[in-house]
Amino acid sequence: MKKIILQYIFMTHTIVYAASPLIDAYAMTDSNQTHYLAQWGLQYCLQYDKENLFEPITYNKAFGLRKDVAQGRIDLQRYLDDECLGRVMTTRRFQSCMRIYESDKEYKKEVERIVRKYCKDCK
Fold first, then answer.
1. How far is residue 42's CA from residue 82's CA, in Å, rounded to a whole number?
2. Which of 42, 46, 59, 76 has the fewest CB within 10 Å, making it most exposed?
3. Which among 66, 34, 60, 30 has a CA at the least distance from the CA of 48?
């Protein structure tokens, strides 16, 4: 009887911890992925990874960008490089990045397009 109870506890423990990453991965919606990719684009535009001021979003465990959507970062980099002319961080580039992130409808449409392209099962 003790063996059966121990097996049951072990199996329950294994199932609970093995299933949670899958549940989190499939629970992500299109709007969450769009929001996360837009945040990543702002980080790239502001060159946070080059300045080493903060830990990049991709290393943050709370950042929930799915692996299939993360492939779209290259497309977003190309789009932002075309929009933000300067390669060096200046006040003008900062203002341009904030304008793109906050109010530019084209940026939001581009991020949504990239998420739809790479995330086939997002709803």
1. 14
2. 59
3. 60
Contact at 8 Å (CB) between 73 and 36? no
What are 32's two structure tokens?
Answer: 């969450």
- pLDDT per residue over 23-36, tens digit each? 555 555 656 788 88
pTM equals 0.62
DSSP string over the chain: -HHHHHHHHHHHHHHHHHHHHHHHHHH--HHHHHHHHHHHHHHHHHTHHHHTSS--GGG-TT----HHHHTTHHHHHHHHHHHS--SS--HHHHHHHHHHHHH-HHHHHHHHHHHHHH-TT--
Model confidence at 46: pLDDT above 70: yes
Domain ranges of the chain: 28-118
CA pair distance 46, 40, nearest whole angstrom: 10
